[in-house]
Amino acid sequence: MTAAPPAGAGTTESGAGAPRRKAVGLLLGVSLFSLLADLGTKQLALAELTGREPVSLLGGAVYLSLTRNSGAAWSIGSDHTWVFPIITFVVIGWIAWMALRLRSLPWAVSLGLVLGGALGNLIDRIFRAPGHFVGHVVDMISLFDPYGQVWPVFNLADSSLVCGVVLAVFLELTGRQRDGSRLRDEKRDAAAPAEQRESA
Question: What global pTM score does this model have?
Answer without folding.
Answer: 0.83
